[in-house]
Every structure is written in C-alpha cells, then in structure tokens.
C-alpha cells in the first residue's frame, strides 16, 4: 500500500510504501511529549516530495536519531536513524499519514524511558 503524509502546513510531504501492521508508542522524554505513533520502514520505501531544506533536525542524548520536524508548523512527521543492522530507517509518525484509521492500528508500548 502507498500512503501519503505531511506535517500540518504541508511544508514537509512524503509518500511511504508498506503495510502498517502496528505502531510503537515510546515513553522516552521526547516521544511522550510529542505523542508520536511510530511505524518503522526502510528508507528505500520513503519518497520525500519536498526538499530536505524544508526539514529541521533535532538530536539529543547519543545523537543517533535525527528527529525531523517542520520549522514552520512544528509537526514531526518522521525521524531517521539506522536499524541494528546499520540500514537507513525512517520512523514514520502515523498520525501524519492521510486517511488511516488510527484506532484500527495495534499499538505496542516501548519503555524508552528506562534506557
């Protein structure tokens, strides 16, 4: 399935291919404040429709995850990092995907706070 997503103002837009089988809700200091529901996909499945210049990056702690957000509206549609095998991966915030039923997506809770 091919999904379209964006930040609130549309300054950052993308498509992503795959099947959303579940999402992850993390309780770490940043995820709990943002309320993201994350779907992890290989970077090869994501197509940015807007230039990288539209994306603002925030890193903290070990500076491994690039928390990507819109500098205009402040919404974070995704983050970027490498998976445990070193492959580039996107953590898509499914709340930023158009026309999906969030209540139909099983959510797994992750204790990132304790790491």
Which short descriptors sum up this protein?
single chain; 115 residues; mainly beta; Metal Binding Protein, Guanine Nucleotide Exchange Factor, Chain A; five-stranded antiparallel β-sheet; three-stranded antiparallel β-sheet; 1 helix
Characterization of the model:
By secondary structure, the chain is mainly beta. The protein has a single domain, classed as Metal Binding Protein, Guanine Nucleotide Exchange Factor, Chain A (Beta Complex), CATH 2.170.150.70. About 5% of the residues lie in helices and about 40% in strands. The chain has a five-stranded antiparallel β-sheet, with no helix packed on it. Strands 1-2-5 form a three-stranded antiparallel β-sheet, with no helix packed on it. It has a two-stranded parallel sheet with strand order 3-10. The radius of gyration is 13 Å and the shape is globular.
Rounded average pLDDT: 96
Low-confidence stretches: none
Overall geometric form: globular
Biggest sheet architecture: 5 strands, antiparallel
Please write out the topology.
Layout: E1 2-6, E2 13-17, E3 23-26, H1 29-34, E4 38-42, E5 46-48, E6 55-58, E7 66-70, E8 78-82, E9 88-93, E10 107-110
Parallel strand pairs: 3-10
Antiparallel strand pairs: 1-2, 2-5, 4-9, 6-7, 7-8, 8-9
């Amino acid at each position: 399935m091919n999904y379209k997503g964006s930040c609130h103002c549309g300054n950052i837009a993308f498509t992503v291919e795959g099947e959303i089988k579940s999402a992850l809700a993390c309780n770490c200091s940043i995820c709990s404040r943002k309320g993201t529901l994350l779907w992890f996909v290989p970077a090869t499945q994501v197509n940015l429709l807007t230039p990288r210049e539209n994306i603002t990056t925030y890193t903290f702690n070990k500076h491994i995850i690039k928390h990507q957000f819109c500098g205009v509206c402040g919404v974070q549609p995704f983050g970027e990092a490498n998976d445990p095998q070193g492959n580039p991966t996107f953590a898509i915030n499914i709340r930023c995907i158009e026309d999906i039923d969030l209540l139909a997506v099983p959510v797994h809770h992750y204790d990132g706070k304790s790491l």
